[in-house]
Specification:
By secondary structure, the chain is mainly alpha-helical. It has 2 domains: 7-45; 51-117, Arc Repressor Mutant, subunit A, CATH 1.10.10. It is built from 7 helices and 2 strands.
């Protein structure tokens, strides 16, 4: 039976893999897949949670969100945990409810069709790219 080198040994000298029989290569592939999954899981677990990343972000309360969207404060509070778009702005586990201002601004820009340019924030509907209406020309092209 062929001695199977360790993954470290193959990493140091990849040519060793070419000398192994197929069953040994399959066994190494299965081991490698297990190591790969463990590493990926550890990497994903080490990513900061979104609420941790928002610690320095500008926030706003339900009253300000209501003003921005032209709805009542009670509407924002009622729908914040269950309905979009309010649910996507809510910062979890905050009392009183707090919302991410950057997410709200990004949503408003997308809905307005504006560019990502920060200077356009708050200018909803301005410069949407529409051409001005023109007066139809008279029939026959004759001038009056």
């Amino acid at each position: 039976m062929t001695q199977v080198p360790s993954l470290d040994a193959i990493a140091a000298d990849p040519g060793k893999a070419h000398t192994l029989p197929r069953p040994a290569l399959v066994a190494l592939a299965v081991t490698l897949q297990g190591v790969w999954m463990a590493v990926q899981t550890a990497l994903l677990a080490s990513v900061p949670v979104e609420s941790e990343m928002l610690t320095h972000e500008e926030t706003c309360d339900a009253g300000e969100v209501a003003r921005l969207f032209g709805v009542s404060k009670s509407t924002v509070e009622h729908h914040a945990r269950t309905r979009l778009p309010y649910q996507s702005f809510l910062i979890p586990d905050t009392r009183p409810m707090m919302f991410s201002r950057s997410k709200i601004d990004r949503y408003i820009r997308q809905r307005a069709g504006a560019s990502v340019d920060e200077s356009s924030v708050g200018l909803r509907g301005v410069n949407t790219g529409r051409r001005p209406r023109t007066q139809p020309s008279s029939p026959g092209g004759a001038a009056s």
